[in-house]
Amino acid sequence: EVDWSACSKKNLMLGGNDFAGANFRDADLSYTDMRDTNLTAAVLEKATLIRTWFTGARLDKASFARVEAYRSSFQKVIAKGTSFASAELQRAAFDGADLSYASFEKADLSRASFDEAILSGASFTYANLSRADLSKARIEGTIGLDKAFMLLTRIEGLDLSRATGLDQSQIDIACGNGETRLPTGLATPASWPCPKD
Fold first, then answer.
1. Residue 54, CA distances (Å) to 30, 90, 116, 130, 162 in order
2. Is the CB of residue 90 less than 8 Å from the CB of residue 67?
3. What are phi and psi of 168, to 5 degrees?
4. Which of 12, 57, 133, 136 is the most exposed place for a label (fewest CB within 10 A)?
5. Which residues, 6+ apart, have CB-to-CB distance to 92 below 8 Å?
6. Using one digit for the tens of pLDDT, what is the confidence trace for 122-165?
7. Is the distance from CB of 50 to CB of 34 less than 8 angstroms?
8. What is the pLDDT of residues 98-129, one digit of tens each?
């Protein structure tokens, strides 16, 4: 039960450690290697995590609310039920992550990648998903997209048939294709498919 709240722990090699239940609130962990760590139920609220590596870490039920984590790596993390509410996650990589029932409410995920990420039950209410790539994410069941900003969000081939809160105005500015499955009542825009960046 480490307590490093408000501490500066930049540029460190902390991979493989057990930080279950640790307190990193307001800490600066920028450029720190946290790969393969156990952060189950840890508190990182308002921490600075710029270009921090969490690859392969266990983050179940942890709080990343209001963190600054530009360009950080969350690849292949297990983050079931984790909160990323109001987090700054521009260009973050969530490829291969299990984000089942994670909360991204009001998070900024512009240009974030979710290649092969599991998003079943995740909530993106009021999130900024502009230019984020969800096209190869895996969704079994519901995903919450109420009021999410989806400008040029890549959703090609994505099954959104059971998405909640999704409306036509969001679809009209997103980037899907003929394989994108939409909820009943929503139509495929004439502008699809979008050109590649």
1. 11, 15, 17, 23, 30
2. no
3. -65, -35
4. 12
5. 69, 70, 71, 72, 73, 74, 109, 112, 113
6. 999 999 999 999 999 999 989 999 999 999 999 999 999 999 99
7. no
8. 999 999 999 999 999 999 999 999 999 999 99
